[in-house]
Amino acid sequence: MLKLRLKKGGRKKQPSYRIVLTQSELRRNGRPIENLGFYNPCSKKFFLDVKRIKLRLAQGAKPTKTVQSLLLKMT
Fold this sequence. Notes:
Layout: E1 2-11, E2 14-23, E3 34-40, E4 45-48, H1 50-58, E5 62-63, H2 65-74
Parallel strand pairs: 1-5
Antiparallel strand pairs: 1-2, 2-3, 3-4
């Protein structure tokens, strides 16, 4: 099953995340199928490629709870 989830990056005490499409069975920082945006919780900035995300959701990808809340903030 495909999932929209967060992939952790950044430095110690300064996390940043990429919003990626990946297989649900793979580990968190495994190789993604596609990068769809980023989220920085320290500065509260985020960017989403809405067109690609809508396409992937229509194809059956499921977002995690955190990604779902970011999608709701975008609208």
